[in-house]
Specification:
- The structure holds 2 protein chains of 2 kinds.
- By secondary structure, chain A is an all-alpha fold.
- Chain A is built from 13 helices and 2 strands.
- Chain A has one domain.
- In chain A, helix 1 packs antiparallel against helix 2, helix 2 crosses helix 3 and helix 9 packs antiparallel against helix 11.
- The longest helix of chain A is centred in the N-terminal third of the chain and has 40 residues.
- Chain B is globular.
Chain lengths: 376, 522
């Protein structure tokens, strides 16, 4: 890779990682909010409904920023990798349409769900919530076809041979996709559980019951994730041998991602350990919640970032993997002009600084209860 | 995909795209207008110490927050839709639009950070700091509007292409110093005539390599004189609409409640609105007209219905500062097209083309293409001319309404006496209603029709003199039900957001209550 390719590869990777952190939180917390709303209604338990509302706040704020970073990715793709975006909007038109339709269903329903709380029939309200939460899963359902194609091209190969019309439908039969999407969904729901646990274990929002629900959800999805994650790794072995070799540091690899995979496994181990300890304590009732629970969200986010890096960055130096080799970023890169690198660096730095500022403000707004003091 | 299907897509997708853009523009206007009112309110609050003004600040901030969220949502959808439904736009984003679009990201994120910061600090920090935060927020918002306008401006006037467009349309002016590659520009044009879809070229690596380096100056979209004027014109129009909406809200409130504080609030920002309404036509509008006359001859001729080249002292003076100036008509444009009669595309451009041109493309008669496009532009005159003058009328109405309010609320000599007498005749309630409706409807009409004229005026091209709309539209067949869904969602977002803004603005303390309820989880 030359410096331009490396820059493009890194910027795109960084944007995807940032975006996915917000996306996973918003999808996961959305489901927890809706399920606790349902349980609260079924059991006539107002406390659970209160939890649902509090979790929903996290969704609202992260949803906005996940959308912002989604836009950033689109612009980066168009600016740096126009070839790939043009292929995506053509060959992958229908999967992207699924994602877009999910977005346009989800966004208004978030507003409707929030503003109609206690104002409409609870059944209808819960139904709206479930549609909203399901639409959340529809977003990766569409976009993950792109990831499946760049990891194990199926329709893309047809398109590159000129059979674009056939490729538009063939994309739905990518063999890597089923394990990838299940791995993605389970991951998002796991992150939702971990964030919930952490949030309600933090000092200013402490609530044992709510934290326990988060922990319970995390245990379930960690278990599911172990199964679908394993399936995904096996799928990679068959359908994307180079990425598999890179992850396992096997002969013929193009990048050594094994250390990061080890870190990920260690993080999973830590999460499993904290969940196990806290579950034992909380199951018995009056025990003190282990301090580690408050860090579950952070550890989970680190795990998520590493996982996605392994998924995307570990293909280095290729952009699209083709069996034992691949297409480099230069294959899709902007050839229509020389990139003004200095400007790009300044813009990137500004975005990172402002995102950090936003996270700090968000943290204070949520944890230090700035909103409570909002003047009347 | 054949040409008919591309046209079919164009017919289906164009209205939905326009709806999304117009809806986004409504929210964008409030985003740009509200900061002026908020800053005026903070100054009132500093001066008087009256808590009512602080409440008003929070109310307007609440409206701004809902509006910003709706703007962000519609903007995101429009942007996704842009690359999905109009993939040829990827070529623009990856060339002249690269710097503006990436700068816009910074502005967008900056707006979010500063708006959140403003909300959580208002009333807790010194007012001067709140003014500073809101001012920087406005700068980011205006900058966002400016850079997006720059891309649209380049599509209206492809600055940096020098004389190249004259190869196809001899009547066109020169578009600034050359900062594009002649070979690349012409190869892309010929490729489009051959393939029919920009998307097909961009996704083909070999084709892209043959098109090669298109642009030498990444900042060209920002630098054109047409853009500088467009930015001033568009951003001012957006501020005017935003302030007019807020003015209408406060006037409605005053008519109902007769509170002196409401009147004081109106008085605090009305002079700014009046100044903008004067400056907009007299300075920016005039400059904009001169730019159109200079760089978009087909649009200028359509707006003014100049079918025959002629002289018109008033128009000549307004457009060229010269009463004796010749106003280029469609007849002369068609005559100039005749210069190209019999000239085949392949033979005219063969020196620049790196691709083998198909025989049918090679045989294209440049004179025929030129005539066809001029006649197409001419056919728009019947709609552009009346709409343009309705737009002018809207601006005049808004100015009359604002001046009427100004003379009513301020003591400005004999004119104030006359206006007040008229108001007495009609009654305060009726006359104020009429004046504010004039401002609101006039401002909205003027801006929305202005944008319509800007967009339709550049037809039959998407990039003036270079690329047609059906060359940038998606080649994938799009089902009508999907577009119906997008339309419904856009309308729903519009309706929900406007209702929410109305509730927050009409129920005092509602925004603070929402914030408190959110935090206390009631």
């Amino acid at each position: 890779m030359n410096s331009f390719e490396l820059f493009g590869f890194s910027v795109l990777g960084l944007s995807i990682l940032t975006h996915l952190v917000f996306v996973n939180i918003t999808i996961g917390t959305g489901w927890i909010s809706v399920v606790t709303r349902l349980l609260g209604w079924l059991r006539k338990d107002e406390d659970l409904e209160l939890m649902s509302k509090r979790i929903f706040k996290i969704l609202v704020v992260t949803e906005l920023f996940s959308g912002v970073w989604g836009t950033i990715i689109t612009v980066i793709l168009a600016a740096l990798f126009p070839g790939l975006l043009a292929i995506a909007t053509d060959v992958m038109f229908y999967p992207i349409l699924i994602a877009l339709v999910s977005i346009i269903i989800r966004i208004p329903l978030i507003a409707v769900y929030w503003y109609s709380w206690n104002k409409i029939n609870p059944k209808t309200h819960i139904l709206i919530g479930f549609i909203m939460a399901t639409a959340g899963l529809g977003v990766p359902m569409g976009f993950r076809y792109i990831f499946a194609e760049i990891t194990s091209p199926y329709a893309l190969l047809l398109a590159l041979q000129g059979a674009v019309e056939e490729a538009r439908l063939a994309i739905f039969f990518n063999p890597l996709y089923p394990s990838l999407i299940l791995h993605t969904w389970a991951g998002a729901l796991l992150i939702g559980g971990l964030i919930t646990s952490s949030y309600f274990a933090s000092r200013n929002n402490f609530n044992t019951r709510y934290a326990r629900i988060g922990i319970f959800s995390s245990v379930i999805f960690l278990f599911i994730q172990l199964i679908v994650g394993g399936w995904y790794i096996l799928s990679l072995m068959h359908y994307s041998p180079l990425l598999f070799r890179n992850l396992m540091m096997m002969p013929g690899s193009s990048f050594n991602a094994a250390p990061l995979l080890t870190v990920k496994i260690i993080l999973i181990g830590i999460i499993a350990h904290i969940l196990y300890r806290s579950w034992r304590v909380l199951k018995n009732g009056n025990g003190i919640m282990p301090r580690g629970v408050a860090y579950l969200g952070l550890i989970g986010t680190m795990m998520l970032i590493i996982s996605e890096f392994l998924n995307d960055g570990a293909r280095y130096p290729y952009f699209v993997l083709l069996g034992d080799s691949g297409l480099p970023p230069s294959f899709f890169m902007n050839v229509y002009m020389d990139l003004p690198l200095l400007v790009m660096y300044v813009i990137l730095a500004s975005l990172i600084i402002m995102t950090a500022a936003f996270i700090v403000i968000f943290y204070y707004a949520l944890n230090r209860k700035f909103l409570e003091d909002a003047p009347t | 995909m054949d040409d008919m299907s591309l046209v079919d897509n164009l017919i289906k997708i164009y209205p939905v795209t326009m709806l999304g853009i117009y809806l986004h523009a409504v929210f964008l206007s409030i985003t740009l207008g509200a900061p002026f009112v908020i800053i005026c309110l903070i100054l009132l609050w500093i001066r008087s110490g009256n808590g009512l003004y602080l409440r008003a600040i929070k109310t307007i901030t609440g409206v701004l927050v809902i509006n910003f969220a709706a703007g962000a949502v519609t903007g995101t959808l429009v942007e996704f839709g842009l690359v999905q439904a109009w993939p040829g736009m990827i070529f623009i984003i990856s060339t002249v639009g690269l710097v503006p679009f990436t700068l816009e990201l910074v502005a967008f994120v900056g707006e979010i950070v500063l708006l959140v910061l403003f909300i959580i600090t208002i009333g807790k920090i010194r007012p001067i700091w709140s003014i500073s935060i809101m001012s920087v927020y406005f700068i980011f918002a205006a900058f966002s509007g400016a850079v997006i306008t720059s891309v649209n401006s380049w599509m209206n006037v492809p600055w940096g292409t020098g004389e190249y467009m004259r190869l196809f349309y001899p009547f066109l002016p020169s578009f600034g110093p050359v900062v594009v590659s002649e070979e690349s520009l012409l190869t892309f044009r010929a490729y489009l005539l051959s393939v029919g879809s920009a998307s097909q070229i961009i996704q083909d690596q070999t084709a892209s390599q043959l098109v090669g380096k298109f642009l030498h100056d990444p900042f060209v979209a920002l630098a054109s004189p047409y853009n500088l004027v467009s930015v001033l014109h568009n951003v001012t129009a957006a501020i005017i609409i935003g302030m007019s909406i807020i003015l209408a809200g406060y006037t409605y409130s005053y008519i109902r409640n007769k509170r002196n504080e409401t009147m004081t609030i109106i008085r605090s920002f009305l002079p700014i609105l009046v100044v903008l309404l004067v400056v907009q036509p007299v300075v920016f509008g005039d400059l904009m007209g001169k730019m159109v006359a200079a760089y978009q001859p087909t649009k200028f001729a359509a707006i003014e219905r100049i079918y025959q080249t002629r002289q018109d002292p008033l128009l000549g003076f307004l457009a060229y500062n010269d009463p004796n100036a010749k106003l280029l008509g469609f007849d002369e444009m068609l005559e100039r097209c005749n210069e190209l009669r019999g000239v085949k595309l392949g033979e005219r451009l063969s020196y620049a083309l790196k691709i083998p041109v198909e025989d049918s493309v090679y045989q294209l008669d440049l004179g025929e293409i030129c005539r066809r496009d001029v006649l197409d532009a001419q056919s728009k005159a019947s709609i552009l001319n009346p709409t343009y003058y309705v737009k002018i009328g809207g601006g005049v109405a808004a100015l009359i309404g604002a001046l009427g309010l100004m003379f009513t609320l301020y003591n400005l000599g004999p004119l104030s006496s006359i206006v007040r007498r008229l108001i007495k005749l009609l009654g305060e309630r009726v006359s104020m209603s009429i004046l504010v409706v004039l401002v609101l409807v006039g401002a909205i009409l003027s801006a929305t029709i202005g944008w319509f004229v800007r967009e339709v005026g550049r037809k039959p091209w998407t990039i003036y003199g270079y690329i047609y709309p059906d060359e940038v539209i998606t080649p994938v067949p799009v089902d009508t039900s999907i577009l119906a869904l997008f339309t419904a969602v856009f309308l729903l977002i519009g309706a929900v957001s406007l209702t929410a803004m109305y509730i927050v603005s009409t129920r005092e303390g509602k925004f603070s209550e929402i914030l408190r309820r959110t935090n206390k989880n009631e």
